[in-house]
């Protein structure tokens, strides 16, 4: 392993496991600072591969291919958390993996994640493990209704989830979520959802971009804006939780924490992502240091950059649905000089697929939201 505690300087090679848009935006930040980027995933001509110096196509369980990949990089990070633990272990023999395999192990499994959070005193909704219909029935009795049944692994954007509104829904919810391990969570009647994207450097320095408010459509993030519309005391409490959490997990890199703010003003952690997050995309245009540059700085052992915002901002996702009547009207969106277009280089359009996003900067979050929604509307149908 090459000098794991010395800073990894520009010119070095950063390896990325995964090849989606998060890896692409990371690679853009890394190349801007003079690093070389290698990406590994089962696909070719990927959003990350189009920007990286080297794109390796292989299966995550092909440990020989992973070892070969890791041998040729100075540090490894990932852009999605479903990389198998054995893959990370194999790679870690050749280059430091940041955040570490143990952070990945906890955050790639909802039940492990919630158990870890609860065990360390972090606020989560009541939950119970479920591996059979009988267990689900007793969990529903214990937790009450409404509740949400979620698969423990591989669920994202609301996939692998079923509502349990009354005890009689248990059987259908169990069937709808397949035969794998699950978790039943109490439903939080939330006023709003927000996230904190935070980073921790190799020297333990903590940084964050404050609270970003999020709205979802069909369980997929639709809109994010900063600053979030929450009371100062809530903001201070949530940032304190984020700092404790990154320290407890010993994160080196970026981690996003998604929160609910309940109607009675309590905060709950919904889930963690040990990487940059969709809700942090607005930092690219709106902050002095983006979440991707910060990931690069953290994993390379460089000092973290300043996270000050240049102005309030809003980000609207562009999903495949926008293509339903053909190519969106890019010229119309470009007609908003204060709105920035980001596209991820995906040629396969599918409804619900994240194809890109728009970011607007404005004097207030409300004004930024209005601008970004306006610009998106001009692109075509929703
Ligand atoms: P997740 O995949 O866990 O992030 O869930 C996707 C979305 O479903 C969240 O952003 C919420 O809007 C909603 N959701 C998930 N879990 C809960 C919960 N326990 N209470 C209320 N809403 C939830």
One letter per element, helices H and strands E, the order comes to EHEEHEHHHEHEEHEEEEHEEHHEHEEH
Low-pLDDT stretches are none
Order of strands, main sheet, comes to 13-12-9-10-11-14-16-15
Tally of extended strands?
16
Termini separation: 49 Å
Number of helices: 12
DSSP strand content: 25-35%
What hetero molecules are bound to the protein chains?
adenosine monophosphate
Morphology:
globular
Largest beta-sheet details: 8 strands, antiparallel
Radius of gyration using CA atoms only:
21 Å
Q: Estimate the helix proportion, in percent.
A: 25-40%
Mean pLDDT over all positions: 95
Secondary structure category: alpha+beta
How is this structure best summarized?
The protein has helices spanning 21-32, 63-71, 85-92, 101-107, 110-119, 133-143, 170-176, 232-249, 283-286, 291-299, 330-334, 365-379; strands at residues 13-17, 36-41, 54-57, 75-78, 127-130, 147-151, 161-164, 182-186, 190-200, 206-217, 220-226, 253-262, 267-273, 312-319, 339-343, 354-362.
What are the defining features of this structure?
single chain; 382 residues; alpha+beta; four-stranded parallel beta sheet; 30% helix; binds adenosine monophosphate
């Amino acid at each position: 392993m090459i000098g794991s505690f010395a800073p990894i300087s520009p010119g070095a090679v950063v390896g990325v496991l995964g090849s989606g848009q998060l890896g692409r935006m990371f690679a853009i930040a890394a190349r801007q600072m003079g690093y070389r980027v290698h990406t590994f995933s089962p696909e070719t001509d990927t959003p990350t591969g189009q920007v990286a110096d080297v794109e390796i196509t292989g299966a995550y369980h092909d440990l020989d291919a992973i070892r070969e990949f890791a041998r040729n990089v100075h540090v490894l990070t990932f852009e999605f958390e479903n990389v198998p633990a054995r893959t990370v272990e194999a790679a870690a023999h050749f280059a430091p993996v940041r955040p570490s395999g143990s952070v990945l192990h906890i955050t790639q499994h909802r039940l492990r994640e919630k158990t870890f959070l609860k065990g360390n005193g972090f606020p989560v909704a009541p939950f119970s493990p479920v591996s059979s219909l009988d267990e689900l029935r007793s969990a529903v009795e214990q937790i009450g209704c409404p509740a949400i049944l979620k698969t423990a692994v591989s669920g994202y954007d609301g996939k692998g989830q079923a509502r349990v509104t009354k005890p009689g829904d248990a059987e259908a919810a169990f069937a709808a979520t397949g035969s794998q391990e699950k978790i039943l969570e109490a439903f939080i009647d939330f006023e709003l959802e927000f996230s904190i994207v935070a980073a921790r450097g190799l020297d333990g320095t903590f940084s964050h971009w404050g609270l970003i408010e999020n709205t979802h459509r069909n369980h997929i993030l639709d809109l994010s804006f900063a600053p979030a519309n929450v009371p100062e005391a809530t903001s201070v409490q949530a940032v304190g939780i984020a700092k404790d959490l990154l320290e407890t997990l010993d994160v080196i890199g970026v981690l996003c924490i998604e929160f609910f703010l309940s109607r009675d003003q309590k905060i709950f952690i919904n889930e963690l992502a040990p990487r940059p997050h969709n809700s942090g995309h607005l930092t690219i245009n709106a902050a002095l240091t983006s979440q991707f540059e910060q990931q690069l700085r953290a994993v390379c052992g460089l000092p973290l950059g300043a996270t000050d915002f240049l102005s309030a901002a809003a980000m609207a996702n562009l999903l495949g649905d926008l293509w339903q009547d053909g190519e969106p009207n890019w010229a119309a969106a470009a007609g908003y000089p204060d709105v920035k277009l980001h596209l991820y280089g995906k040629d396969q359009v599918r409804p619900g697929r994240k194809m890109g996003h728009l970011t607007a900067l404005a004097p207030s979050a409300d004004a930024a939201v209005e601008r970004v929604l306006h610009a998106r509307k001009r692109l075509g149908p929703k």
